[in-house]
Every structure is written in structure tokens, then in C-alpha cells.
Amino acid sequence: MLQTVQIPLLAAMLLGGCVTKLIRALRLGSLDSGLGPTALFPMRLRRPVGLAMSALELGLGLGLIATAGPIGPGAPATCVRLGTGLLFLVATSALLELRAARPDIGCGCFGDFSHSPVGWRTLTRSALLALAALITIGLRPVQQPHSSAAAALLLGMLAAELTVIAGLSPELGEALVRLGYSEPCELRVIPAERTLTALRRSKQWRRHAGLLTADIPADVWRELCWRYLVFPARYGDREAEIVFAVFLRQRRPLIHAAIVDAATGTSLPWAAAPSRARWPGRRGTDGRSAWPTAPDQEPAGGQPAPGPAEPAGPGRRSAALY
Amino acid sequence: MLRARGDRSCCDRCAGAAGGTADAARVARRRLLKDAVFRPQAGLLPESGGWRGRGEGRRHDPAGYPGFGPDSGASAPDPLAGQAGFPDASRLPRAVTGTVLDVSPHVLVLGEPGGRPGSEQRFTLTGRATTWRGFATEPTSLHHGDRAVVRLHPSRRGVADRIWANIGRVTGTIIEHTSDFMVVDEGLTRSRQIVFIPPRAAGRIQVRFPTLQPGYLIDVIGLRGPDALEGLIPATSQPAYPAGQVPEPPLVSGHVPDAISGSATWHEPAGEPPGVLGVAYPALDPETGCAEEQQPGRARSYGRMPYLAVGSSLLVRNDCNGASCVLPVTGCAAVARLFNDRCVTCGTSPRGRVADLTEASFVALGGELDKGCINATITIGR
User: Fold this and answer.
1) How far apart are the C-alpha atoms of A63 and A59, rounded to whole Å?
2) What is the bridge-based pairing of β-strands B259-267 and B353-358?
3) In a 3-state reduction of DSSP, which class is residue A243?
4) What is the pTM assigned to this prediction?
5) B223-246 pLDDT, tens per residue?
6) How far is A248 from chain B (nearest CA, A)?
7) Cross-strand bridge partners of residue A247
8) Residues 193..212 of A with a Cβ closer than 8 Å to B: which?
9) Do residues B351 and B200 lie in contact, with contact meaning Cβ atoms separated by under 8 Å?
10) Are A21 and A54 in contact (CB under 8 A)?
11) What is the ipTM of this complex?
């Protein structure tokens, strides 16, 4: 029964390794990544070696499944299982070599998840999998358990072995970290188009749109979590510019706005201006003669400004710098 | 990709795309606009000059911004100096760049060939002044026409403390390597460089750069010739990976730290005014339309650094001597971000390059150009 458990386990490991490598190659647009033992090869050989590894994993994984049942018992099954055992034996040796030659890189067994340097856990896992493959040689075609007790025992053994494999897999921790990972806003890539769309939906935009003389920003730049958009405007008979600072988050970004003299760059008080789109019955249409003094701030969509947890500006943590 | 209206044909940080003065004006303008939005404290803004707006007849005036303009060195008044703990740039050693017009055992004359009479600058040479011209030598070994970077004595501004003549640096990806020369790609905004390594320096360089093959990174310092760089000194150790296979940077949770330590290097001016104080930053906003960012399959950066733009301010501190200065971001360090090297000028820095300084900035912070890097900590102005 122990032998029976190994077949799905080995197949899952091989196919999982193949798929994660493929995902990595698609993401990077190249197979020359040199992750894992392929880094031991010269540059010109890394692509073919990487391709061969992935193809071998795919073939053996599918072969293990195909030859597990009544189809293809005997020599084909033995060949596939022997090949799997040899693959893991060679992998163990390669990892030992990698650990000595390039101790800084990971094994690459599961693509992006295998960045941790090769350690004893990775080596042990590879050796155990080789052993698991070798003990399946000569196994008769796998059949369904005859009783629920046998099925439970089989599942229990599978779970226990999975636990052991998980314990020997540094990739598990990496996967858990990625699952719960949220990139800080300072590092997040947010298209400027999205920022502009959010700005144009905001109350700040509607409030000041009457002053703008162009819909296309004269300048756009980003610092940390804020993107700044500058639009040409008219302030009475003077040329002016309105600068919007939009906090980079997906929904309802906080927006600040200020109007400055185009020639001198000095801040100007907001003056009454016809809005392009006023929403009756809402704030800003109550007959006020003047707009709020700069800088005014408001989240897009007319939501009240968030509490202290919401960033009030770029001086969030180090106000001394500005 | 959103494109702002304007005259930016490439992106807003292409060296030389708009000229140093225009870049300086943009930097100053962005600071003013940002301050206008976020209610600056009184006294932090430049009193006069400011920036001139768009349009004909308006002069781009970078006055009031620290260290901008040709040969401003570190002597320009820094509006942030003395505020909130910002170091005063004027207290840093001043760096001067020019062409050697004359040299004697006691006096060095710098200027520009064909410059107007009286524009030369004279510096006193003392016995302690050291000179580099491919190797340590005497100031009298300088030649007429050499391009020199001079660090002045901190307390005696007319005295030359350190001189580098014809120093150059090539940092990039090897494109072609023959028995005679290498062609190195320094990014799309810089022209490709030719490097030849003389036999006397080959062993020294190959110890630190064992893989001089196309696709691998190189960083060498040497003598700048009219057509090529004579590589003499390895500026760092070669990363083990090719330029297109930069290791995955570690994930950053929460907020990125305020201060980031690493290696700070220098670069030759390419379209920048000589003597400009500034820093090329490895993580400019990809949405600004920078040429490198538009490349399909472009190499990723080694480190995860917060996105900034041209005009952002960085407090750069030399961890070796404690000198620090606020510098504007003037460009993108597209190649520097590929390196995961450490600087070992004083101790061992964390991996990765955090800033690529202009020559003047590097010298003003106390760096030795022939050493290649300083252990540095940057703090991002917020």
C-alpha cells in the first residue's frame, strides 16, 4: 500500500514542477533564467537543458499516471518508474553540486517559489522522492481500495507523506508569503491612465474643471504613493495651473488640489468658477461665492476624508524632510 | 500610456533630451507645485527666482534649487539647508570640472578651450594635492587639454585637494567582445561605449570580471580617450548573472523603509552640465514613459525601491565619512539597478545600488572617483 501512494505523489510533484517552471518562463519570456541546476551550465546550454528538464518532468508525470492502472503495466511502467527514480537521483547529485558551486541560488524545482538557497531540506526531499520512485518498480496495477478502511488508510498514508514533503519544502513558506502579500503603494505599478480616470470621476475635478483650459495634463509625475497631474488653467485674466495630487490606490483615492500662478508658481486662492458638471443638491452647489482655500482635499467620489490612518500627504512618516 | 502634453520627445529624464537648464527648471517647478499642494512650511521655498512658466520669452531659471547649473558645485545656496536637519551643501567640498589650460608645480589653471579671457580658474597646488591620471602621479603630469575634476580643499576654496584627469567610467552590458575591444551598452539613452583593456590591466580586471562575454555586466574605470575608454580599474565585482537574468528581488511587506542603504556609484556626464549636483535613481516611475521601461522583456531591477520621478529629493549620506547632502533626482539609473554588488569602501554595504551620482556629487560627498563607489544611505524626501 505504501508503494501505491507514491505514484500520485510523484506525478503531482513532477507535473507541479513542470507547470511552475512553465509559468516562470512565460512571465519572464525566456527559458534562460538559469534558476537551479541549469545555472551550472554555460549560457548557450541553459535553454535546451531547461526545456529538456521540463519535458522530462511532463513526460514522466503523465507516464506515471498512464502506467499506474491496467494500461501499460510491465515494461512501460517499469521504465517510467525507473526513469523517475533516476531523475531524482541525478537531481539530488546536481543539487549537491549546486550547493557547492552556487550557494546563493535556489533549486528552481518549483519555479518562482524555489528561491531559497539549497539546504538540507531540499536535498532530503529529492533523495526521498528518488527512493519513493524506486520502490514503485515492480508494483502491480493500482486498483481501487476494497473497503472504506483500506481507503482511509491509503488517504492517511498519503496525508502523512504529504506532510513530510511539505515539511521538507522551503517553497511552502514562500507560497504562503505570496498568498498574503500586498505590495506597498510605493512599489505598486499603477497606470497613469487609471489615475487620470479616477481624477476625472472625483469631486475635486468637477469642482475645478471650469478653470481648466485643457483636458490633457501639462505634466505628470509620481513620488512614492502620490501621482501629480498639472493642468493649464485660467485664473481671472491670468494664466494659472492646477495641480492635483492623487493617492495611488485602487478605489476612491484621496485627492489634493491647488492652483498656482503659471508665471511665478505662487499659490493662489481658489476663486469662484463655473463648474462643468455640478451635481444639484450636493456640496459645492449651495451658493457659496468662493471655493475652499488651497489646498483642499477630498477623496474621490465625495467621501469624507479618512481618519488619521489615511495618509495626509507625502510627509506621512518623515515630515521633517519637507 | 498616458503622455503629458509638452516637448518631451523621449521621456522626462533622458539625459540631454531637454538640456540641463530645462531639466533644472522642471525640477524646481515640480517642487514648487508639490509644495503648493501640500502646504509647505514657511521659509522652505526659494524666496526668489522660483521658476518661470511656459511660453516664449520666459527664461528657465533654476535659481533657488541646490546645486543646479553649470559649475554650481556645492556652493549654491541650499534652501533646505539648516532646515529639519538637512545638511548644508555649501559646507561640502566643492568640485570643479574643466579643461587643463596650464599647470605648474604650484598653480593649476582650468578653463574651457576658446573661452573668453578671464574665465579661467586658478587653483593653488600644495604638496599634499594628489593627482590621478590612470595612476597616482604628480600634478605636473597633467597635460594641456586634459579634462580634470578637481576637489577643492574644504576650508580653502582656492586650493586643489584632489585632481582626477581624463577619468572615465563605463557601466553596462557587454554587447560584443573581440580580442581588441568591447562594446558596452549603457542603456537606451546613452550611446554605446567602446572599452579596450591594455595588457597591463587585463589581469586586474579579469580577477573581478571573470566573464567578459556578451550579456554580462561590466563596470570599469579608466582613462577617457576621444573614441574609447582605456579600462584600468575594475569598479566593482561582476554579478554572477547575465544582465537579462537579474535575481528576483525579495518581497517587501508593509511600507518601504525611509532610509535605504547600499552602494552609490558615479557616472560620466552625458548631456548633463558639468559640475551639476544630482543623482540618477534606479526606480523612476515606469509610467513616465522612460525608454528602458518600454522595452519588451526588459531586465527587472535587483532591488525593490519606491518609485520616484525627476525632481524628487534624496538625502544622500556617505556612510564612510558622514557627509550628506540633499540632491535632486536628475535621471534614471537604468543600468545601476541591474547590479547586486556591495560597496566595500568602508565596511560592507548591503547589496544593490541605491544611487548613481554625478561626478560633482560623488566628489562633494567625499568619494574618490577612482574607487568607484561609496557606502551610502539614501533617505527619500516625503
Assistant:
1) 6
2) parallel
3) strand
4) 0.67
5) 998 889 999 999 988 888 888 777
6) 11
7) A226
8) 193, 195-196
9) no
10) yes
11) 0.71
